[in-house]
Amino acid sequence: MKIVLLSGSNVGSKTRTAMDYTVKIAHEKYPDAEITLLDLAEFEMVFSDGRNYWDYEGDTKYVTETLMAADAIIIGSPTFQASIPATLKNIFDLLPVNAFRDKVVSMLVTAGTSKHYLMAEQQLKPILAYMKAHIVPTYVFIEEKDFHRKEIVNDDVLFRLERLVEDTVLLVDAYAGIRKVKDEEYGF
C-alpha cells in the first residue's frame, strides 16, 4: 500500500508538525506500507498551465506522479483567509479531474482559531469529491492552542491523528475488497 502525506503549504510550521506526527503514527501502525511525505515547502513547484501532469519536469513532475501513484493520500492544510493555501490549490490544478478516482483521501487542517473549522467542509471536501476521491468522512482540526514550541500538546489531537491514519488504511482495504468483488463479476 502506498500512502502519501501532502503538507500543503510552503510557509509556517504547524501543518508540517502535524504531518510529522502523522508520518510517525503511520510508520508505527503500518510498517509494511510505503509511506512518503511531500512537504510543498521543500519543492520548487511551477504553476499549472493546463498541461498534463506527466509533461512537467523536476519537482512538479515528481510531486504529481507520486500523488497519482498513491493508494491513499493524507492532506495537511493550514487555513489561510478561511480557505486553502494557493500552493495546495495549485496541486489540484496540476492534476487531472479524475486524479483521485479509487484513492482514499483524508485531511488534517490547522488554523489559528476554532472559527475556521468548516474550511475542510466548504473548501477541501468539494474539491476532493469533484476529483472523485473516496473521502474519509472525519478529519482532524487542530487549533493554535494545541501547539507549543513545534509540538502537539493536546492528547486528544494525537488520538484523532491515530484514528485518521487507521480510518484511511481501513477504507483503502474496504474499497480494494469492493473492487475485487466487482471485477470478479465479469468472469474474465
Automatic annotation (TrEMBL):
Give a GO molecular function annotation for the protein: FMN reductase (NADPH) activity
Q: Which InterPro entries does the UniProt record give?
A: Flavoprotein-like_sf (IPR029039), FMN_Rdtase-like_dom (IPR005025), NAD(P)H-dep_FMN_reductase (IPR051814)
Residues of the signal sequence? none
The kind of enzyme this is, by top-level EC class, is oxidoreductase
Q: Print the keywords alphabetically.
A: Flavoprotein, FMN, Oxidoreductase
PANTHER family, alphabetized: FMN REDUCTASE (NADPH) (PTHR43408:SF2)
Protein name, per record: FMN reductase
Q: Which organism is it from?
A: Sporosarcina psychrophila (Bacillus psychrophilus)
